[in-house]
Specification:
By secondary structure, the protein is mainly α. The chain is 74% helix and 0% strand.
Length: 309
């Protein structure tokens, strides 16, 4: 194959990876704390709330519109730039390859701008580090950049910093170092949700299901977070699916937690567990209700369309 053709095909593969890449960035980022870096005298909080809601509920076009308007009005608002980067990333998932790459670069620029405006914004710096860890050089990423950024995050937010360093070690196929960092992330927080999720995910990727399950049993039975996270283990392992379905159903009757899944997320997880149990009618009902609550999620719409009738 001629060199220029080889480069072209390699570039196409990178472009096609942009959407999943940004999805991974958002997934690992978690929810942004409200109002963390609003400039004095700012009136941005209502629009920041709309921006956060758009990202959470799948209305990425609206989130991008609001975010772009907000950063134009308040260019020194670090949180707005960070959230706009997340909105670009989620929008990339739903775009064609060339558009994905364009949005990926815009996402990185937004994360970098947020971190430059406020070097103490650990969320923005962590988003930038995650992007750089996962993205190829063609899209502005690089592991050495990610490591430098993770070390800065570690100074600001030890739990998040250790999580990032664990992800870097895992990317480098150093499982021992990765586990050590994820355990340090868990130890660094009194609540431990970010570190607990990171360590649980590490165990899942290595099919260490009992160790992953034990982490959430320690977190407290009957809790929506515990039920939601344990259901991910059930889906991955194919074990304890019926128990997981019962726990998730019970969680719907409990008050929502700021750190836990939203009602629509619980219903989507219920649909997936019901699907694994070969109960498509129940799965369809749960997904339909989730979309009634949060109708903009295209992935959920596609999931519903794939279910047998």
């Amino acid at each position: 194959m001629r060199p220029q053709l080889r480069r072209s095909f390699r570039g196409q593969r990178v472009l096609l990876a942009a959407g999943p890449l940004l999805a991974a960035v958002i997934a690992s980022a978690g929810p942004a704390p409200a109002g963390q870096t609003i400039a004095q005298g700012s009136h941005a909080e209502p629009e920041l709330s709309v921006l956060r809601s758009g990202i959470e509920q799948g209305d990425f076009d609206e989130a991008v519109r609001v975010g772009e308007r907000l950063v134009a009005a308040e260019p020194s608002n670090s949180e707005a730039h960070d959230l706009l980067g997340r909105a670009y990333g989620r929008k990339a998932e739903q775009s064609l390859a060339l558009r994905q790459a364009f949005l990926a670069r815009k996402a990185r620029a937004s994360f970098a701008r947020a971190a430059a405006i406020d070097p103490s914004n650990a969320a923005a710096l962590a988003d930038l580090a995650t992007y750089d860890l996962l993205a190829p050089a063609l899209l502005g990423g690089g592991r050495s950049k990610a490591r430098r950024e993770a070390e800065e995050v570690l100074k600001l937010d030890p739990e998040r910093g250790h999580e990032l360093l664990g992800a870097i070690a895992e990317r480098e196929e150093d499982a021992v170092a990765a586990e050590e960092q994820y355990r340090l992330a868990l130890a660094a927080s009194t609540k431990g949700l970010r570190g607990r999720r990171a360590l649980s995910g590490f165990f899942l990727r290595r099919k260490r299901y009992e160790e992953a399950r034990a982490l959430w049993l320690r977190a407290g039975a009957g809790d929506p977070v515990q039920a939601y996270e344990s259901s991910a283990i059930a889906l991955e392992s194919g074990e304890k699916l019926r128990e997981s379905l019962e726990d998730l159903e019970a969680s719907l009757r409990l008050p929502a937690s700021p750190d836990g899944p939203r009602e629509a997320e619980l219903r989507v997880r219920l649909a997936r567990v019901a699907g694994r149990l070969h109960r498509p009618a129940e799965a369809r009902e749960y997904l339909t209700e989730a979309l009634r609550i949060e109708p903009k999620h295209r992935d959920w719409q596609k999931e519903l369309a794939r279910l047998p009738r």
